[in-house]
TrEMBL record:
It comes from Quercus rubra. The active site is at residues 78, 120. One of its GO terms (molecular function) is cysteine-type endopeptidase activity. Residues 284-380 form the Legumain prodomain domain. Keywords: Hydrolase, Protease, Signal, Thiol protease. The lineage of its organism: Eukaryota, Viridiplantae, Streptophyta, Embryophyta, Tracheophyta. This is Legumain prodomain domain-containing protein. InterPro entries: AE, Legum_prodom, Legumain_prodom_sf, Peptidase_C13.
Length: 381
């Protein structure tokens, strides 16, 4: 965990983290093996592979597993087509992550693996990339072409007015976490939980009529296994006899993940005392976020026009490939063009990663790095 929440000056309960309104502390006593600068893609892959020699910083703990072990990975961050964001350094690219999983399988370092993934366009991390013969079952918060959604946000009915000014959870994540909290996981299968989470996440529409499509990838036969093998269970739930597994649609208000930062700064600005330094600071943060979004919108579209002409640009940039295909053919090209854009035009940011499909399409159209450099410098210099 990046570990920047508990002690943040905007946290009204210093040292405490909650993941629902009026919720219990979910921070105290939780192990923190890698925090801050040590939360990066290199350490993430090294931990999965059990490769202690590749680590930098942190506790040194890795997944030192063998052929009889069950592995559970839950990953949540912002993302975009083909990438997961990290608090530090490079993105985790979909092809690299899947290659790490293939390497773990080739080493006979597990019996089966379950991967729960929360991010925008999270389906693109496995779509056309995760084979069904690796003994890995994955579910994602959204399909390959849509954003995911935050919930338990400040304007939720019944939320404490002064307690927080940001969203506390992700709809997909709170759905599986709250389902797991309630039941004897020796009796519930991965498939049953998938169905519960799918219904709740797709129907997250009590207020906004929005939600995302939870997807399954990899070896779907594993979905018949018990959750207990991957998550354990709470002994307090041993006598649970529930037949109903929270199948009703969510009536929570939800917010597109790409707008969460904007919402946070707006609430900071709204709540700050008139004329105060905090008011001015929040106003600047809000204006900077709006300016960044406008810059990314403009620069990607302008680069597309320079490369393909006004008439063809949007058609190329907005192309969505058929289901079952990864977003790009040449991942090295994709990485080079992303880094080229960010070198000349600045970080894409949480908001701008939605345009990674456009950059993938630029690659698929055969644009060279030199052409991308020229278009980027003309647009952003």
């Amino acid at each position: 965990m990046y570990d920047d929440i508990a002690s943040d000056e905007d946290n009204f309960r210093p040292g405490v983290i909650i993941n629902k309104p009026n919720g219990d502390d979910v921070y105290k006593g939780v192990p923190k093996d890698y925090t801050g600068q040590h939360v990066n893609v290199n350490n993430f892959y090294a931990v999965i592979l059990g490769n202690k020699s590749a680590l930098t910083g942190g506790s040194g703990k890795v997944v030192d597993s063998g052929p009889n072990d069950h592995i559970f990975i839950y990953y949540t961050d912002h993302g975009g087509p083909g990438v997961l964001m990290m608090p530090n350094g490079e993105y985790a690219y979909a092809n690299d992550l899947n290659n790490v999983l293939k390497k773990k399988h080739a080493a006979k370092a597990y019996k089966s693996m379950v991967f729960y993934l929360e991010s925008c366009e999270s389906g693109s991390i496995f779509e056309g990339l995760l084979p069904d013969n690796l003994d890995i079952y994955a579910t994602t918060a959204s399909n390959a072409t849509e954003d995911s959604f935050a919930t338990y946000c400040p304007d939720e009915p019944g939320a404490p007015e002064v307690e927080y000014n940001t969203c506390l959870g992700d709809l997909y994540s709170i759905s599986w976490l709250e389902d797991s909290d309630k039941h004897d996981l020796r009796k519930e299968t991965l498939q049953k939980q998938y169905e519960v989470v799918q219904r709740r996440t797709e129907k997250g529409h009590g207020f906004s009529h929005q939600g995302s499509h939870v997807k399954q990838y990899g070896d779907k036969k594993l979905s018949n296994e018990s959750l207990y093998s991957y998550m354990g269970t709470n002994p307090a739930n041993d006598n649970d006899t529930s037949v109903e597994y929270g199948s009703s649609p969510s009536t929570l208000r939800v917010v597109n993940q790409r707008d969460v930062t904007l919402l946070h700064f707006w609430h900071k600005y709204r709540k700050a005392p008139v004329g105060s330094h905090k008011k001015l600071e929040a106003q600047k943060q809000l204006q900077d976020e709006i300016s960044l979004r406008k810059h990314v919108d403009y620069s990607i579209n302008h680069i597309g026009e320079l490369l393909f002409g006004n008439g063809s640009s949007s058609k190329v940039l907005e192309t969505i490939r058929p289901s079952g295909q990864p977003i790009v053919d040449d991942w090295n090209c994709f990485k080079m063009l992303v880094s080229t854009y960010e070198k000349y035009c600045g970080s894409l940011s949480k908001y701008g990663t939605q345009y990674l499909r456009a950059i993938a399409n630029i690659c698929n159209a055969g644009v060279t790095m030199e052409q991308m450099v020229t278009a980027s410098t003309q647009t952003c210099s």
